[in-house]
Structures are given as structure tokens and as C-alpha cells.
Amino acid sequence: MTNSEILLDKRDLVHKQDMNIVIVGHVDHGKSTVIGRLLADTNSLPEGKLEQVKETCRRNSKPFEYAFLLDALKDEQAQGITIDTARCFFQTELRNYIIIDAPGHIEFLKNMITGAARAEAALLVIDASEGIQENSRRHGYMLSMLGIKQVCVLVNKMDLIEYSEKPFKRIERQYRRFLRKVDVEPLCFIPISAIEGDNVANHSDRMPWYKGMNVLEVLDSFKSEQLPEDKPFRMPVQDVYKFTKGGDNRRIIAGTIETGKISVGDEVIFYPSGKRTRIKTIEAFNREPATTIGAGWAAGFTVTEQIYVKRGEMMCLENEPKPKTTGRMLVNLFWLGKNPLVKNKIYYLKLGTAKVGMQLEEIRSVIDASNLVSKKKEQVDRNEVAECILTLDRHIAFDLTGDIAKTSRFVIVDDYEISGGGIVISELEDQTSWVRDKVLMRNYKWIGSEISAEARAKKYKHGAALILITGERQSPRKELGRALEKQLFNDGRLVYYLGMGSVLYGVDADLIDHKILPPSRQEHIRRLTEVAHIMLDAGMIFIISARELTADDYDVICTGIPPEKITVIWVGEEKTTDIPVKMHINNINDIEECVRMVRKHIRL
């Protein structure tokens, strides 16, 4: 785009566009100086700020640096490095810019990832005197993984090499070659001196051999991403709000729309639960009610059927391509944690608003992001990229990176710190896929009651709950279940007890006929779960006793019943199960005393 074309675009605009830009690069290559110079040269600083910083430097006998305009935190100035993603704002005649300054120091790469994930384009800074460093390559690889294709490389500190063209061309040639390997084609390379202001906001007379745009012109030449309203509708559920004041009985499902658009009356499905309803109203804070809303908006919705959904689900339109739902996935991830990513350890994966427990199942290959060398390993070390299979402790909804990038990105938390992140390549079958498909169909076809769960809870004076009493073969599970049912009934609760044997010879009678179908424990558990689903939908406290339930059994149950509605009690001296047990009763000498203990412990 020529300068005249840029100026023409500016005149034609009535309202300025917004654009997010991330700036990355190796430590001390001058990112903060570039931003400070842009802020100063576009007159975007608060009045008197530049003079104030210069005066502070003079009083402290410290040379003024444009980076100080950005490094507002005292500890950042003391260390001489930017330790967090800093967001700053400036404007041209064309746009309002939000510049995300991502740290280049290896200790703070994870902050860069958080910043880069919000950006539409990137400036990547390389020191002309130091040349291409490991982090220069690593940042290029990560921008590729995050799907940022608009990249301009700034070869900074040209004043240190006397504004020579030859080293600039060498850096351009070498770095272009590397970026092509990671599927990034930079729009341009610009030789600059941020400290002197050469080719940042103004063209430089010191490099007459360079005929291209300066940094400011390149920023204005970047194409703004159109809000992706043409993609399938996706909104991760942030929360569900219930209003009661002044007779207001709305339940508002809230979140930020990532892609697509939606209108009042549209039929929606929530994944991974598969629950279905219609949009009744579109709610917004301090905004006129709307009948249609699209990508980029934070909004709330009321629905016609009062279904139970929670944070982490994804709202989608019924007549559009559905997201993937599974508890097992093939991913491409980068690892930045202090400790390596290893098998047999619990991590947390966050995708959209969902947060689930995660384990590393298999490492297919490991790549060093600084040189793209691939190898086979049993762990993923710091600063390595890997293709892995991850197993989650429950199903989540997501898209593949080739379909919708925003809902395919994830981060991994280890010891309360973001230690890695990546993109989903493919969904994989897991051990409960066969159950999930049935549950999705059940929820899709389910005709909900006119009576809401809240209305039932208010009427019965308790919420629906599933109590699983399990334990060793000889443990008095049934006795405890029946006694608990009787006591709760006498207290006015809507309660029902069911032993596994009643299911086997009733609902599962066809499975017991070996001539027709060999008995399947998983199918027994699935059918038991469907009975529990009906009882809970009726607002009841449902008590089940079953011998020695396992993690596999529990996974099947949790596919059909929300885990937060399930309480597990283990009866027996030795706890041999690997499922989450709320209460362990070692020995039952007095059933009535045990019932009192149970009621007190789980507040029935």
C-alpha cells in the first residue's frame, strides 16, 4: 500500500478502527524503546509526561530512555527488563492502537503468550548488532502457533552498526528462511533506530538505501480482522446469574461471543452437555435491548426452557456445525514451565471458560522451537514444542485450529502457574465416547418439564442430589442406604433408595439373558445413570448402593449426571476405590448413628 493510498483511506473513515498489536523479541533488543518512541512521536502521551520522565532522569543522573515511558513499575526499571505484558494506547489518523508489549526475557515468555493471543498482528524486534537469537526464533514459532500471520520484523539499533545495509540484509535473509519453515511470511523488514527515531514515525535520511515504509505506516497498512460473524456461533459460558429482587426471576446465561451471531428465537445447544433451548431475550448492561448480537460482544441471554447449564459449556446454534466434544485430544503445545511436562501427573487445562484436570498420555514428538529439530522423548522440557495426546478428567467442547482458532487455543496450569499452551489438532475417542453420544442424543431429544429445578427445590425445600453408597462386598451398603432413605423421608424430603440388584433384574433384565447379550458392567452403569437422571430431573434425592464402584464406573455416571450433584460415600475398613469419596465410613456398629453422621457431613 502506498502512502497516498493510506492517506486516502484515512479521509474516507468516519470512525476510527481499533487494532491490537503485539510486540515481541529477545531481551534488550529494544521493544520498549520502540513503543516509547511511537507514544512520543504520535503525541499520545499524557500532557507533560515526556518532560516529567526526562526531569526524573536528570535528577537521578540517569540517561533518558524512551523505554522509561512504558516501564512504569519501579521494579521493572530497577531490573532493566519488562516483566509483564504492558498495554499502551496511541492513535494515528487511521486507527486507535492497543500495543501489547510482550516480555522477551526467557523468564517471562508465558506472559508473551497471554498477550500475543489477543493480537491481530505482530512487530518482532531484532537487535542489528546482536543478530538473530534463540528467543527471536522461539517467538516467531509461537506467533505461528497462535495464528498471527501479519508480522513485520524491525531490525533495531541500526545506529550501532553505522546504518549499514549489508548486516541488515543478512538478518533479513536468515530470518525469512526460518519463518518460512514455521509458515509465517513477514510483510516486511524495516531497519530502524528506535532511540534516534529513524524509520519509526519518520523516514530516515541516514539510510537512503531503504525505500520502504516506516513503522507507523506499516501499522496503518495492517488489515484489521473483521469480526468473525460469518463463522459458526460460539460463546463459552462465563456464568449463570439468577435475579430475585423485585419479582425479577430471570436466569441470565452470560459470556463473550467469540464467533458468529445470534438472534432472539434461535435454537441453541450447549456442549458438552447437549442441552437444547431457545433464546428468549438478549440482555446487556447499560445498553438498549437487542434482537441480534454478534462476535466481540459480552452479552447475557434468557432462554425459554430453564435448563441447567454451567460455566465452561459452549453455546452454539442448533443449525450450524457443532464443536468437538471429548475428553481426549491430539494437540500441538509449547512448554515453558520450570518443571518438565511429564506423565502420571495432574495438570489443569483451560480452554475458553472450561477448566479441567488433565494428564499427559503420550508424547509423539518433541521440537526445539529455536532450531526446529524433532526428537522422541519421554518428557517435554522447558522451551520445547511437542505433539502430544492429552487425557482430560471430563469432556469439554472445542474446535480444531483449522476451523475456529479462537476456540481451539488452550493453556496448561501447573502449580497455579500458566506453564504451557497450544492448539487442538484433532479430537480422539475416549473410554466414555460411547456414553457421551447417547447422552447428547438424550439431551437433544429431551422434552423438559414446565416446572423448573428451582421451583421444585423451593417446593420440596431441597435440591436434587445423587448419593452413591459403595464399598467392599461384605459392607452394609444397602442397610445404610435404606436407613438414610427412611430418615430423610420422615424429615419431609422427597427421597428414593434403589439397590443395584433392583436395576439388574428390572431395567437390565435383557442384559442378564446371556443368550441374547453378554452382561456388560458399563451398560449396567449407563442404565443406572439414566434412571438417576430421571429421578434428579424430578427434583428428588436419589440414593443408590453398588459394590466397589471404580473410576471407569464413575466416569460413565459423570457423563450423564453433573458431578456437582453427586456425593460418594465409601463403606468399609479399606478404601480400595480411586473415585473422589466425600465420606469414608470405616465401620458401622450403629446404623442410626451413621445416618446422623452422613446427614451432618453432607448436609441433607
Structure description:
The termini are far apart. A six-stranded mixed beta sheet has the order 2-3-1-4-5-6, with helices on both faces. Strands 7-8-13-11-10-14 form a six-stranded antiparallel β-barrel. A six-stranded antiparallel β-barrel has the order 15-19-17-16-20-21. The protein is elongated and about 90 Å long. The relative contact order is 0.08. The protein folds into four domains: 3-221, Rossmann fold (3-Layer(aba) Sandwich); 235-317, Beta Barrel (Elongation Factor Tu (Ef-tu), domain 3); 324-430, Beta Barrel (Elongation Factor Tu (Ef-tu), domain 3), CATH 2.40.30.10; 459-602, Rossmann fold. Helix 14 packs parallel to helix 15. The protein has 16 helices and 26 strands. It is an alpha/beta fold and 604 residues long. Helices cover 27% and strands 30% of the residues.
Helix share of residues?
25-40%
CATH class of the largest domain: Alpha Beta
Strand order of the largest sheet: 2-3-1-4-5-6
* Rg computed from alpha carbons, rounded to a whole number of angstroms: 30 Å
Terminus-to-terminus distance = 70 Å
Question: If classified by CATH, what would the architecture of the largest domain be?
Answer: 3-Layer(aba) Sandwich
Detail the poorly predicted runs: 1-14, 72-85, 105-109
What would you give as the CATH superfamily of the largest domain?
P-loop containing nucleotide triphosphate hydrolases
Number of strands: 26
- Beta strand %: 25-35%
Q: What is the overall number of helices?
A: 16
Main beta-sheet strand count, sense and barrel state: 6 strands, mixed
Structural class, please?
A: alpha/beta
CATH topological fold name of the largest domain: Rossmann fold
